[in-house]
FAD linked oxidase (Nitrobacter winogradskyi), 497 residues
Amino acid sequence: MTIMMPASDQAVLDRRDAIVADLRAIVPGEGVIASAAEMLPYESDALTAYRQPPMVVVLPETTEQVSRVLKYCFDNGIKVVPRGSGTSLSGGALPLADAVLLGLGKFKRIREIDFDNRVVVTEPGVTNLAISQAVAHAGFYYAPDPSSQIACSIGGNIAENSGGVHCLKYGMTTNNVLGCELVLMSGEVLRIGGKAPEQAGYDLMGIITGSEGLLGVVTEVTVRILRKPETARALMVGFSQVEAAGECVARVIGAGIIPGGMEMMDRPAIHAAEAFVNAGYPLDVEALLIIELDGSSIEVDELIKRVEAIALGCGSTTCRISGSEAERDLFWAGRKAAFPAVGRISPDYICMDGTIPRGALPRALARIRELSEKYGLGVANVFHAGDGNLHPLILYDANKPGEMDKAEAFGADILRCCVELGGVLTGEHGVGIEKRELMPHMFSEADLSQQQRLKCAFDAQGLLNPGKVFPTLHRCAELGRVHVHGGRLPFPDLPRF
C-alpha cells in the first residue's frame, strides 16, 4: 500500500553535496554515510514493508555533535529523522528522501551505576538487556523487558514507551525512566528530571516518553533499577478454548493478584514457538497462559495455589509449575521467541499492537477470528494478557498479489475493534506511519490539533520526524492562528509568518 509522506524539498536536495560536506565538518571520520550502497541498512526499521533511502546518515558520538547537527539543520531548514536500533515495528524511523537520518547507535556507554539511589545513567544506544546485565551482579535489574530487549535501545524504548512481559506489575518505560538529556531541534540542550523519583513542575518526562522522536533527541537517560525478587516461579497453563484463557486472566486480576507477568498465546503461536525453542509447551491446547508470580517464598507458594484454583475453575486442561530458575527461563524463552518463530511458518507477517480493557479480551479474540475468516488470512495471537496489550500476527505472502493490502486492512480492522471495545490504537509499538491514518478513529480534530500544538512548542518548524503520528500535517502558524480584536493584531511590531 502506498503511503503519503511530506513532499521533498527540492532546494534541499539540490544542496545535498554541500550539506554532506558541512555535516562531515561537524562529525568527522566515519560519522557521515552518504553513498547509496552504505545507506541501504537505514532505509527502513523493523516495519520493512515500507522503505525509503535517506538523503544522508549521520552517526554522532557526543551530545555536542548532536546539538551542532540539529542546529545546522534548523538554520538551513533541513528535516531530521532520529533513529535508535531500528527495531521499531510502526515505521517510526522511516527515513525521508530530503532528510538527515540521525542515528544514535554510537551512544552505547553506561555512564554511571548508582546503587545507593537505585538508578543507572546511560546513553540511548545501550540495549535494554545490557542495563540489567550491568547490574545483575548486585542483585538488581531493569524491569521493562520488550521481546526485542537483546537488540532494542533504551532511547528507542523512550520514544515508543515500550513495555514487555513484566510491565503488568512493574510498569512501562514511562514508569521506570526518571530523567533525560534532550537536544531540541534548535540545538538547545535541556536536562529534564534526574535521580530523584519526583520532580517539581510539569511532567515533561511523561511528555517525552512515547513522543516518537517528534519533540527532541535524547542523548542521556536515567532509569530506575529494582532489586530482583527473592523468588519468582512461573505457571504454564493450557486451555481447550481461547476464551477460557481470557476469562482466567480477568479472574486472576479480579482476585487482586498482580503477577510479575501474564502472557498468552494461541495454538498457531504455541506450535511455532515450541518448534523453535523446545520449551515443553503442550501442543494439544488452544491457548496457553504463562503466569509468573514473584515475592517472598511463602507469598509465591500461596499465590500459586490460588492461581491454580482459578485456572481450574476456568477449565484449564494442563498446568505445569517451574521447579527451577532454568525451567522458568525456558517457559519465557518460548514466549520471547514467538515473533521470530512465527516467521518460520509464514513468508511474511504484520505484528499489530492494540490495547483493550482486560474484560474485553474474549470479545476481541472472537472478533479477530471473524476477521481472519473474512480476509482469508491466518493469524497467530501473542498477548501481554495482563494489561490487555494484543499482538496479533497477521500471516500473509507478499509475493501473492493483493495479500499485503488485505493484511493491512485486516490489521486496521483489529485496531478499530480495540478502540470500539474501549481500548487504544497502540500499547508499546507507537503510531509511526502504521497507525497514522487511524488516529481520527480515536481522537477528534480538536484532540489532534492540541497534540500538534504541543509538538510546535518543541519544534516550531516541524523539522523533527515529519510525516509520523499525525494524519494531517499543519504548520505551527496554522495551528496557532492569531486572534484579531478590534481590527488590531496583538503585538503588531513582532514579525509574523
Observations:
- The chain has 18 helices and 19 strands.
- The domain at 231-345 is CATH 3.30.70.2190 (Alpha-Beta Plaits).
- The two ends are 36 Å apart (CA to CA).
- Residues 403-420 form the longest helix (18 residues).
